[in-house]
Amino acid sequence: MRIANLKVAVRVKNPDASISNMTERHYNMKTKLTDIASVIRSKNSGPYELTLDIIFNNFEDYERVKQGGFINEALICKLYNVTPDKIIGIIAFDPAKAIKATIKRPLCSGDLGETDVYGAQQHAPLLGLEFDE
Question: For the whole model, what pTM was predicted?
Fold first, then answer.
């Protein structure tokens, strides 16, 4: 799927104007991560770490997200309620058209109170991501 940088211009009547003139508004299109990534997953990378993988459908979308810096420390902190010191790394891996983020697990895999021993269900916050075009 090719994603273009689109802006839609819509003409609407300005109800506050004394004469019926037209104003122009621009609406930014959004791209859902689920539409441009073939794989969004999480997994353990050891008992104390969790890795999030995003593998894109094509190089064009991968490059756009990578160059735009959309997957960054601030986003991971917000989505996973962690502080920057808990982020081990965020890397782009060009041969696989993938972005990987690794964070420290809040609880050790298999520890008392830990609910996802394999770390395979932690990708859910990524599924709702949308990016402005």
Answer: 0.76
φ, ψ (nearest 5 deg) of residue 58 = -150, 165
What digits encode the pLDDT tens for the residues 34-54? 999 999 999 999 999 999 999
pLDDT of 61-87, one tens digit each?
999 999 999 999 999 999 999 999 999
Whether 113 contacts 107, CB under 8 Å: yes
Residue 75 CA neighbour count, 13 Å, CB half = 16
User: Measured between alpha carbons, how far is 59 from 83 in angstroms, rounded to an integer?
Assistant: 31
Q: Walk me through the domains of the chain, giving residue ranges and CATH numbers.
A: 30-132 (3.30.70)
Q: Which two tokens stand for residue 127?
A: 């599924």
Q: Which amino acid is at 96?
A: A
